[in-house]
């Protein structure tokens, strides 16, 4: 371990579960290398999860302009992002000053690449800056090419060829790119990640080198790039950092003992786990199709249906299927994926879920919904070989027969055996990357040494 205790780093995620998890995990790795870290949540998020006083990480807040309701209280995505930038910039500057006044000055800011204004604030204070990209290098490359006008949006119908990436059909790009009118404010935010990244001292990627070797090598020609993943709590990678048994901040309360007791009573490799992450809203018709598929396929299942979506379930579904399955509103996902009874993960392909499935060797049925998920699904099925893709119909719904066939492919087909073998290989590579002396571990050392050098 390096002696870098004098370096104080501020880590600022976009305020959402899928961004807090990987950045907090990275923070824990920095702490393990002797760096002092301050993790910054929005006021709203910090109210829902009080900071752990025993944590080695210091917690502080900035305002997103919606201290009472967060994102849900905003009029529109565009209005939220605008306020986040305005209130965020001001309160981030206040926080940097406050830490200075308290004798805890910050030397570097690691900001979520969704928040390029944070780089501008850090530069005003002459701080070292690192952009942390939570999504895949492939997805980043697509937005980079859009930003520079090298990939015109709307896309034509032809496949897309970009350096370091496989040929992609338009529908294998992020939904904000192939449907640019769907969420223009989010498209703008994602493209805008590249507006000032040239000024960042470091670009940190939430993956590991072997996972996207060609794309990472391409990106490394542009910036000082390091891969630091998989950002999965170390206990699941057999690398035990102190107290590192979960991500640490849960915006929703998991039904942990219910899920784990139920899984404990199921045979090995018998359960299909279904979850669509923290942010995706599922169409009622899609919920019905999943419900029918789980009934028809006949396998045991554990299904996360978020509290606000429970009313979309067919009436009496839980009672009628109580012998076969369990429906919960939030699961301890890492423990579920690590459980020996779980054999298949039907996922929306949010990148944290993807990294977790790869790191724990669990084959997937990829049912992408929006944002980066279509690209992640393409990689899961066709490049990394750890899953099958459940294609949606022309209305964007994955039908029950497609889901049943995909689940059977994983649970009992010949194809499923090969996929399982691939998943086990990726699990070993993920562990290797983060093990002492592995590619990500060395990159984190390089980063910490660089910070110490830049400070000196
Ligand atoms: C969002 C985007 O949707 C995603 O596409 C992007 O890559 C990251 O940000 P989200 O939809 O929440 O994230 O999905 P995901 O990236 O999979 O993150 C969800 C996190 O919540 C995972 O770490 C998962 O372990 C956790 N989770 C999910 C639980 O702990 N319990 C659950 O029941 C469901």
TrEMBL record:
Keywords of the record: Glycosyltransferase, Transferase
CDD domains with a match to the protein in the record: GT1_Gtf-like
Alphabetized GO MF terms: quercetin 3-O-glucosyltransferase activity; quercetin 7-O-glucosyltransferase activity
This protein's record includes keyword Glycosyltransferase: yes
Domain Glycosyltransferase N-terminal: 6-42
Pfam families in the record: Glyco_transf_N, UDPGT
Keyword tRNA processing: no
Enzyme Commission (EC) number: 2.4.1.-
Protein family membership: Belongs to the UDP-glycosyltransferase family.
Protein name: Glycosyltransferase
Gene that specifies this protein: LOC113712740
């Amino acid at each position: 371990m390096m002696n870098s205790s004098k370096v104080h780093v501020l880590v600022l995620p976009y305020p959402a579960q899928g961004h807090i998890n990987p950045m907090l995990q990275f923070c824990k790795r920095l702490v393990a290398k002797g760096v002092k870290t301050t993790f910054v949540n929005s006021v709203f998020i910090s109210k829902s999860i009080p900071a752990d006083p025993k944590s080695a990480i210091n917690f502080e807040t900035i305002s997103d302009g919606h201290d009472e309701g967060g994102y849900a209280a905003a009029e529109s995505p565009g209005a939220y992002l605008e306020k986040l930038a305005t209130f965020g910039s001001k309160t981030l500057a206040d926080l940097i000053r406050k830490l200075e006044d308290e004798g805890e000055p910050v030397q570097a800011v690691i900001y979520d690449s969704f928040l390029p204004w944070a780089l501008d604030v850090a530069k005003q204070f002459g701080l070292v800056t690192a952009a942390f990209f939570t999504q895949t290098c492939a997805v980043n490359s697509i937005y980079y090419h859009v930003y520079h006008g090298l990939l015109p949006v709307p896309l034509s119908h032809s496949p897309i060829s970009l350096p370091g990436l496989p040929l992609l059909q338009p529908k294998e790009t992020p939904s904000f790119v192939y449907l640019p009118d769907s969420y223009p404010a989010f498209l703008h935010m994602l493209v805008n990640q590249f507006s000032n990244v040239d000024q960042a001292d470091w670009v940190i990627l939430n993956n590991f080198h072997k996972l996207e070797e060609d794309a990472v090598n391409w990106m490394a020609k542009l910036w000082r790039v390091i891969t630091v993943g998989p950002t999965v709590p170390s206990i699941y990678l057999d690398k035990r950092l102190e107290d590192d048994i979960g991500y640490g901040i849960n915006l929703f309360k998991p039904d942990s003992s219910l899920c784990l007791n139920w899984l404990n009573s199921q045979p090995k490799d018998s359960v299909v786990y279904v979850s669509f992450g923290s942010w995706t809203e599922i169409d009622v018709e899609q919920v019905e199709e999943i419900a029918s598929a789980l009934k028809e396929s006949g396998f045991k299942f554990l299904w996360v249906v978020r509290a606000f979506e429970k009313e979309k379930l067919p009436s009496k579904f839980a009672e009628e299927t109580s012998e076969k399955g369990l429906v919960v509103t939030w699961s301890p996902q890492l423990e579920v994926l690590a459980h020996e009874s779980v054999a298949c993960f039907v996922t929306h392909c949010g990148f944290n879920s993807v990294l977790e499935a790869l790191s724990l060797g669990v084959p997937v049925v990829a049912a992408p919904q929006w944002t980066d998920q279509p690209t992640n699904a393409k990689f899961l099925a066709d490049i990394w070989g750890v899953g099958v893709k459940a294609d949606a119909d022309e209305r964007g719904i994955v039908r029950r027969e497609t889901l049943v066939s995909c689940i059977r492919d994983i649970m009992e087909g010949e194809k499923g055996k090969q996929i399982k073998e691939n998943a086990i290989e990726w699990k070993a590579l993920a562990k290797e990357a983060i093990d002492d002396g592995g590619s990500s571990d060395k990159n984190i050392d390089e980063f910490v040494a660089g910070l110490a050098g830049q400070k000196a």
